[in-house]
Specification:
The structure is a homodimer of 469-residue chains. By secondary structure, chain A is of the alpha+beta class. Chain A folds into 2 domains: 293 residues, Aminopeptidase (3-Layer(aba) Sandwich), CATH 3.40.630; 128 residues, Alpha-Beta Plaits. Chain A contains 15 helices and 18 strands. In chain A, the strands form 5 sheets. Chain A has a 6-stranded mixed β-sheet, with helices on both faces. Chain A is globular. The two termini of chain A are 26 Å apart. At the A-B interface, strand 9, strand 10, helix 7, helix 8 and strand 11 of A face strand 9, strand 10, helix 7, helix 8 and helix 11 of B.
Chain lengths: 469, 469
């Protein structure tokens, strides 16, 4: 539905470059970023519902059809759906994104309020700016560019925006089962990953799996005075540290028996970054973007390999005892840790969960009890790259970045990718525009505006290329 | 100042047994327990001042002289002083206590509000009920019993109640220097320790020292996504667990090089509980009171020895990363631990601090930085028991408990005891009435009413015995 001012022929790419378009998009995205749609925290459920409602309205506003909120499965968070299916002889693309975001603590570490988008220099700061509200808007803005100029999309599009990605998409499989007819497509496009760096467009073909766990160690039935009883009671915090330290050696090699049994000690050389000089040289740059001084990790592998193609164990949270000002002479009665494994394609969350349980059963000292809670895991995935749609992706990147994308693996997990693979059996395209410096899952998350606008152009070109296949 | 009703001759002990006295005392103590006088938390400074003011008024009310609040040293918390010095030919006793209390978290674990005293069965529950507001009131009530019946005390008494004991009495030494003339006495009496059990009155002749420390481990400059970067960045929580686990073996033996160099591997047999059948049999009972199933600690020593006569290391607090509901995929940028050593007489806080620094310097992995903050330590003490005043103590216990007190060491620390020893060079009497089940420093702290009232009687008898010396 082009406006009067746009009756002069403007292409979708030209439209996306107009200052007026860009200003409007940043304002709209800022409105979307204002919803504290934190899926992990139950008290934010009303914010989730409000964000979904707002999003469905926005999809209708830009000209998509059938925009609606679809109820969640088993009390889960709702999804948002819309489509544009008026090119009967063209392929159908399913775009997936998520409107939920990570928790924001430590809030004190944020320079600007996490749910009030702040434009500073080339960056828009807010929780979700990159992961995934901002990247999702790259697609919406690309589609808006088509609909506002040519009044149509060159391909058919369906869009599914879920609200549980940051909690490992626990109901995605059941949702896809229920909505199979509505969502089925010829390919799936997701922008929820990162490029190696701003000069190096990347198609991600591998994702690590994920297994989250929470370990509670219980000691004495109540807190005890550490002066009076220190040395005579097994301290649950001591046991917790010992158990966590026992799971990994100082080089980052997981020390759980059997953990590497199925892991190929040699990385497959066929698709990798070995040939990409620009990537090989950037280890120092990656560390700088992460504000890390010293490389670390499993011996015999590069940094890029360690964070994408090798499994890892990370302690995500530790808590116990007194942590206020000064000191408290206490042997606390309990301590907890949250930790997670990233898994490579030869591993399965179920098998690693079994190995973990066995390891903890062996190393729990007699003076304490433990409670282990294992989360819903995500399987690792390797994507096929030989479908013709990948040529359209490469072509789109070449037009915007002036070079072909590198093929890379990401260390992150996208549980829904495995679900798409299994249930749809169509190509899944991971066309991410995030950068390592985006600080996703951390305070001061941001998206680079140049990545954002270049991303919109890339998606516009991709639609055009895909229509030609 | 006896009231009209008490003109009939009632002895101080009889007065302390009257239901009316006891009811009034519990009400007054409850008023005192209502002040959240937590010295560790700076925001409670106004509560500290209010508690001190209230206490000075109470000391005047019961008939003591010169009751006043004395300003703290170097901005420290104020002290409360009073005296009764009208027995010129009798010895002068300095009673020491403290009106500050430990923090109350986790507040959710309290069955009743920590600053609203609750009388349930034989126990009065509140923060400070035993440590040390309740035990301090044993002395005040004993003095009130004398003053309300005979109108005088059989000895001279000074009382100094400080407000910084729970933060290791950082200014006590300077305070005693400033107030030397005002406070000097022939003996010091403190009730801030425990008896072995309710049947076993105990004089404590040894206290462990204390050294508190806080370790902050700093990793990447900001939180990182643990999927994208897990395996390539040294996690500060991992390093923290490794460093803490490296400081102690699983049997509770401190693994810091040089830690035991000065520690006598054999306990001195002269004064100990070896001969006390009632104590030797109570290991299971101690564990039950602590709600602990399994004995633990340094091989070759009994539970009682481990918690009183051997050094120990306790992690008091652990914090880092995400600890809310669900999971967060994060490599946090920092983690912290609070821990403390209890030291035996051959050790000094300064030496152990040096060993700790050396140990941490050696075991800090290259990928992280650390910040170590060491608190003001307390030296361990061994008290002489051969002063005649100890016979008066033993006599008082014999009258109330029907048996001589055992001589025991306590695992706790009372920094001020070393200061008294050094600056006054007079006997220090640790006449504690607490019980292991009092849950001091923990939720649901309480004092046993039978201990409380028996304690008052013991102190009344002690004054009388001391006057006879």
């Amino acid at each position: 539905m082009p406006t009067a001012a746009l009756q002069i022929k403007v292409s979708p790419v030209q439209f996306s470059r107009l200052a007026s378009s860009r200003t409007a998009w940043l304002e709209t995205l800022s409105d979307f970023l204002a919803f504290p749609s934190i899926s992990a925290i139950p008290s934010h459920r009303p914010d989730m519902a409000a964000a979904a409602e707002w999003l469905a309205n926005h999809l209708a506003r830009i000209g998509l059809r059938h925009a609606q909120v679809l109820p969640g499965i088993q009390g889960g968070c709702p999804s948002v759906y819309a489509d544009w299916l008026l090119s009967p002889d063209k392929p159908t693309l399913l775009i997936y994104g998520h409107y939920d975001v990570q928790p924001v603590d430590p809030v004190s570490a944020w320079c600007t309020p996490p749910f009030k988008a702040a434009l500073i220099g080339d960056s828009l700061f807010a929780r979700g700016a990159s992961d995934d509200k901002g990247q999702l808007f790259i697609h919406l803005n690309a589609m808006e560019s088509y609909l506002k100029t040519w009044g149509r999309l060159p391909i058919n599009v369906k869009i599914w925006i879920e609200g549980e990605e940051e909690i490992n998409s626990p109901t995605a499989s059941a949702f896809l089962m229920r909505e199979f007819e509505r969502l089925k497509a010829d390919a799936v496009l997701i922008s929820d990953t990162e490029m190696i760096n701003a000069d190096c467009p990347s198609i991600i073909y591998g994702l690590r799996g994920n297994l989250t766990a929470e370990l509670e160690v219980l000691g004495p039935g109540r807190d005890l005075h550490s002066g009076r009883y220190g040395g005579g009671v097994y301290n649950p915090l001591q046991a917790l540290c010992e158990m966590l330290a026992s799971m990994q050696d100082r080089n980052g090699r997981v020390a759980i028996e059997g953990f590497y049994d199925r892991v190929n000690p040699v990385l497959s050389p066929d698709v990798s970054l070995q040939g990409c000089k620009c990537c090989q040289l950037k280890e120092r740059q990656i560390l700088e973007a992460l504000q890390v001084d010293t490389p670390w990790g499993e011996p015999g592998f590069s940094l890029q390999e360690r964070i994408t193609s090798r499994p890892a164990l990370t302690i995500n949270g530790l808590q116990g005892g007194y942590n206020g000002p000064g000191a408290k002479a206490v042997i606390p009665s309990r301590g907890t840790a949250k930790f997670s494994f990233r898994l490579v394609p030869e591993q399965s969350p179920r098998h690693v969960a079994m190995l973990l349980k066995r390891h903890l059963a062996r190393c729990t000292p007699p003076g304490v009890k433990t409670r282990l809670t294992i989360g819903k895991g995500a399987s690792p995935v390797l994507l096929s790259l030989d479908h013709p749609v990948m040529q359209a992706v490469a072509g789109a990147f070449r037009k915007t970045w002036g070079k072909a994308p590198v093929l890379a693996r990401s260390g992150g997990s996208l549980p829904v990718v495995e679900v798409f693979q299994k249930q749809f059996q169509v190509p899944v395209i991971l066309m991410g525009f995030g950068l390592p410096s985006d600080a996703i899952h951390a305070p001061n998350e941001k998206i680079s505006l140049s990545q954002f606008f270049r991303g919109i152009e890339t998606v516009i070109y991709f639609f055009a290329e895909y229509a030609k296949l």
